[in-house]
Amino acid sequence: MAGLIFSRQARGQFAAIAFVRWRLFVNSLRTIRGRLELVSRGLIFLGFATLGLGGSFAMGAGAWYFASHGRAELLALLLWPVFLFWQLFPVMASAFTENMDSSNLLRFPLSFPSYFLIRIAYGSLDPAMAVGGLWLLGMAIGIGVARPAYFVVALAILLLFAIFNILLGQMIFTWVERWLARRRSREILGVAFLVVIVSFQFVGPFMRHFGPALGPAVTHVTAQALPIERMLPPGLAAAAVARALQGEYILALSAFALSGAYALAVGWLLTVRLRAQYLGENLSEAVARAARPGAKQKIQVGWNIEGVPGSVSAVVEKEFRYLSRSGPMLFTLVMPVVVLLIFRFTPGKSDNPGGILAHASDLAFPVGAGYALLILSNLVYNCFGPDAAGIQFFFVSPVRFREILLGKNLAAGFVLAAEIVLVWLATCLMYRPPSWDVVLATVTGVFFALLLNLIGGNFLAVFAPKKVDLGAFGRQRASNITAFASLGIQAAVVGLCALALLVARAYQHIWVAAIIFVFLAAGALAAYFLVLDRMDAIILKRREVMIAELCKA
Amino acid sequence: MDSPAISAAPAIATEHLTRRFGDLVAVQDVNLRVAPGQFFGFLGPNGAGKSTTIKMLTGLLAASSGRMEILGVDLAQNSVEVKRQIGVVPEGMALFGRLTGSEYLNFVGRMYGLDRVTAAKRTAELLDFMQLVDQPKTLVTDYSHGMQKKLALAAAVIHGPKILFLDEPFEGVDAIASNTLKAMLQSMIARGATIFLTSHVLEIVERLCSHVAIIHRGQLVAQGSLEELRAGVQAQAAAAALTASGTEGVTVASPGEKLTLEEIFLRIVGGTRRADQELSWLG
To answer: Which residues of chain B have pLDDT under 50?
Structure first.
């Protein structure tokens, strides 16, 4: 196999693929947008570098402590987070990674070992690999500092653990790839994934809330689970290091061999799937559903919103239909209520049974409403993204972009209004009904903030559009430029709101803030319509870039 | 080879239409005349400027210079009025993937100013005509390519446009869907609409179109009815044969021989290849 992988032809193929990747990167810099994206990526890289190096230092310190204090078996406490991060992060942060569709390579005369290697190599080029690798390196160094003679041993064990993680991530991806090819499956998985992520948020508050009652049960379950944990890769890697440090080389070797067996098993499962793909099975191609004969359709008339033109009503209806079919997006829209629920179960300093906001329950409604607005910015800042090739229709239709954007913004406004009602109800049920002046200040403040977000969002939707599929999870974020610009907008909104609240505090009446917000909102409303009137001209100038970006395959 | 002066006001007229992309002149000084009621085929080799021209005519792309008039209305001055009168099936089909077929047509109808009831009624009729009624809950994104083409055409005609612009409407469409599309286009022509289409399938263009224009390297090299183009090519070939008798590669159609559109096209754009030109490594 090694001969095949490193044959002259294989080396040439690897070099050609690397060259293509390089040229794709270089060519992306031809546009201003591409260069701005590079700057954004540079900032994101700094974030990951901090996470990787900081985590590496922390892991190294932890490993040093455990190794030098004769508690090396506790290295599992470090290896489990590494394992979970390595496997979960690629799914959570898939927007940051660019995977090349390696199935396109099948038309070239690649040997299977070369194909396998390319899949692994390019599938692993992501932040999880870099950060996870740095953390493990930090641990190896930490162990090496504590017990220099065992540095190489620790490095070998952790390297095997890294290989296992790489293979596992790829194996899971290839096995679920076929299932994910179906739109409905992607949507279900998207919602399930979000539910799991959100559930993690409840662990801490629930444990603190119900902890004393659950204590014995948790201890019992933990005791039962420990032997199983020791037989799983993170536990085995920790055991291998611990046994080696204790001079029990046979046991260390056994644990190492078991780790190797895991890697081999995962590698074999990955090979089975990749070989099927290599032999022509398209893992991404789901079987199309057959039409149900005779399933006739009842055509419903479109929506009518009083006071706005039919075209605006049609856009609002279209936006709601898109939203109603986006499981992940619908789920994120109930997040404000979930956040209030998390706060409800998070004890405050005085262990008040009413939760962290109990002593200031008037804050619950503004917090929920503010969070609702923040979530909505996903929709507002890239409002043409979900339309994809449909953007062409807007350009050939006789409707001005002023009306199209108004329809999209109205839809966003309706969603926010519904969310605020939901948050108010949740606040009443979980805490207590907020006072009228808090409600007034919150509603006017959110309205003002919404207008600022719509103004900024409409510009960003035109200047940094990005095609997204609202039904799928991952890769659905707006462009990095939008992400950074939105931070600026939110900072401005928060600053102005804080200023209004400070003035209200000086007068010791929260309704003073509501009055200030009404004036600010009036100004923002005038600015909104002023900008809206100019959007047609701006969009017409940007039409080629927008169409090119949103019609990308 | 321009056609004789068209008496009626043109449905589509361009004057010195030009589009540059940096240093590249994609379309240069194109003067098009399409009379009302014509089934007009706009042909050209890959990269000749067909899609660029149709994009400019439909408002998807700005012209660098020149004028465009649709039904006598200046596109640059009154694009909204022009867009009310035209239907478009652009290259990317302009579909909204996460709507069902009926929702999409309803939406398009209302964007073209139809009232809710009329839009719903026409949606039902179009779905029936296009044989898409068996997919009531299927999202457009899950449609086959042929179904998407049919839906895109249905959307382009829901408001009863006077002119229909079609960019490669038959690309990737099977024979059954193709027949449906052709039937619809022919019925539109019978009712007096004008159709402007680009296509690489010259057999279809020859069968459907009464008039043709050929663009090559951004410039309009021929325009007229099929008969005018045929006569022009034969006259040119005859003249060439007279001036340089025995020249290789120039064949003169014998009197009465009817050149196909493909032959006309190849002669106009010079699509012949040197007989001795070969790739050295191919057996």
So the answer is: 1-7
